[in-house]
Amino acid sequence: MRTIVSKGALEVAGKDNTKGPETSPDQVFFEFAPRPPAPVAAATEPTPAVQPELPGQTIMPWSQSPSPTPAQAPVRSFALSKPAAPAAPAPSPYDAVASLEELTRLAADCRACGLRAGCRGVVFGEGNPKAAVMLIGEGPGSTEDEMGRPFVGPAGKLLDRILASVGFAREEVYIANVVKCRPPGNRVPQPEEREACRPWLEAQVRLIDPLFLVLLGASAAQALLDPKARITQIRGHWLERYGRRVLPTYHPAALLRDETKKRPVWEDFKLLRAEHDKAAAGRGQQPPVG
Fold first, then answer.
1. What angle, 0 to 180 degrees and rounded to 10, lies between the N-to-C axes of helices 100-107 and 191-208?
2. Could you tell me if 219 and 249 are in contact, meaning their C-beta atoms sit under 8 angstroms apart?
3. 3-class SS at 239?
């Protein structure tokens, strides 16, 4: 288990999440259910009162629309899962690289797999080079390939809102992908492509030295934890990899296809926020208030 005190200065941004979001509904994460249409009433009729919360429903602070509990995946209680055998990155040609800038320059010329031939360029990653939280997704999409930045398409915009909902700014974390080049047609990266890109990712983790790794989706979980990992079974559980705490959760793109996954992801990021704040408090830094 990694000793938290070995981490450098830990910057904490955002609001006190014990008080709930204080922003408007348009500024927060998302609604868990469509907002119902406004009731049509004659001018002489009084405005209907807001319906009270019903059994089996949960109304989020930023939405008047309830989310049906039965249709959601169960929220897993927070507990450290039994860690797998300790694993360390294999020796890499990039072990001597001393900065993310140098690593980025080297990656731009990578031809270790066939993905580079079919994309515009390498999408290496971006964010705080000393982040306490590193998020790892699957691979660049078309928008990311065009702009040269990770998570800037629809899924990326949702990720920004997920982070903001628990008090993280995008600039506070570091965001990367398992593969750095866009797979043709946004297909899932092949195992050999993930393996070809692994040294780059492991070098990123070494240089950033985060306390927490958040694995977004099955591809990231299979690349870093277990080739047979099922995200539906391991999401929401704290695991370990490279001596770091790892939290798998659904990829934001999955939430755009299936709204029932929104609540589990929100719960997972609340776990992340809580542990992040504990780490900050352990170093004598208090989480933000108000």
1. 160
2. no
3. strand
Contact of 193 with 183, CB cutoff 8 Å: yes
* Burial of 15 per CB tally in 10 Å (0-12, 13-18, 19+): middle
Greater pLDDT, 73 or 228 = 228
Q: What is the pLDDT of residue 88?
A: 61
Domains of the chain: 100-282 (3.40.470.10)
Query: What tens digit of pLDDT does each residue of 13-33 get?
Result: 333 433 344 443 333 444 433
Run of H or E residues at 269: helix 262-282
Residue 241's CB is within 10 A of a number of other CB atoms, namely 19
Contact (Cβ atoms closer than 8 angstroms) between residue 184 and residue 196: no
Lowest mean pLDDT among 30-39, 128-137, 204-213, 269-278: 30-39
3-state secondary structure of 176: strand
- Residue 179 one-letter amino acid: V
With residues binned 3-state (H G I as helix, E B as strand, rest as coil), the percentages for the chain, rounded to 5, are: 35, 10, 50
**Do the beta carbons of residue 145 and residue 123 sit within 8 Å?**
yes
pLDDT one-digit tens code per residue, 233-282: 999 999 999 899 999 999 999 999 999 999 999 999 999 999 999 999 88
Mean pLDDT for the stretch of residues 210-231? 96
- For the purposes of burial, counting CB atoms within 10 Å of the CB of 60, is it exposed (0-12), middle (13-18) or buried (19 or more)? buried
Q: What is the DSSP letter of 57?
A: E
